[in-house]
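In this section we walk through a basic example: taking a raw amino acid sequence and producing a predicted 3D structure, encoded as discrete structure tokens. The instruction is simple. Fold the sequence below.
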Amino acid sequence: MDIDIGNGILGAILGVVFATLFQQWTQDLWFKVRRRTAGKVRSLTYRPGEGGGWGTFSLGPLHTPALIVEGDGDRPIAPDSVHVQVLDGEIELPAELASWRAEIEAEEARAEAAGERRPVWNGERYAVESVDVTRTPLDEAPEVHLRLRPTDYYTFLAAQQLDRRLPDGSTPRRRWLDPDAPLTAPAFLQCSFAANVAVVTADDLLVISRRGDRVRMAPGLWNSSVNEGLARNLDASGRRHAPDLHALARRGMREELSLEPHEYRLELLAFVLDVEHRMWSAHFYARLTDMTGEQLRARTSRGVADRWEHSAMEYVPFRTADVARHLLSPERRHRWAPLAPALFHLALVHVHGRASVERAEAAVVRRL
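The resulting token sequence is shown next.
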């Protein structure tokens, strides 16, 4: 009897030990598969760069300067995993670029005095000092640390002249940017951070906007459903409070589509860098809970705060083949804002799954 009890206890202990070891083995295996899959996904999603490492988003013949720095669309990035810090001290431009900024300021003052046009508003903006990504130890969830510095719109315009000749014959792009290290750049060349949102209606229509002809950047190009830039006067309450990226996206939803937070579900999918123009973006997916495409058309027909930013809106069935054909159509293939195609791809992956999306995209590309 005592032997049987002892054997029973020993068997129970061995069973618990085996179960624990098996659980740990399966968990380790899952993480290894996930990491290997992520590597395969990256090789499919990106076009190899000059350095043989990072590359920018491409789909068949469509190539963009959008570098997906964090996020693959599969799992959203939690709001409390994003940490934003605003550093003291405004951006200081090198002397050569400071003279370009002075030119811009003088030209805007001259145009206003002559009554030729309204001057470009020198809004308060943020420059990106750094974007650092780490992983939590247990579930490898991303932790994103975004460090910003105050700047303004005239500084942004001066720094956007990346290919203008400097006195020594070089350009800002050649002097301060390394194509093999796209995430390393001085903050004075990165004076833009925006939220881009892919909006899908309750009846599964993707909203695609075309930028107005009067906007300064990418006029007339097809773009995300919503595009909103960080502004110090709107997105932070004084120097003590750092901006909230989800709040930025919600502000864009309200100003560009007249949508309120209770009317949609909002998820952060990725952080993306336009390496050509040095513009950063938080890519979001928004699903309208009850509003259909026709109802959204009716809503926007009654007025939106920033109507001038868009010249047209299109509604495309939110199926991979339909969106891919729209992205790759000959009349649009070279008329996309740099970050929009990657946004729509990530939104499709988020909803339909990576394997399904990549099969459907490959089928569309083969038929071109």
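Looking at the output, two observations stand out. Residues 16-52 have pLDDT under 50 and may be disordered. The first strand starts at residue 46 and ends at 48. In the next section we compare this with other chains.
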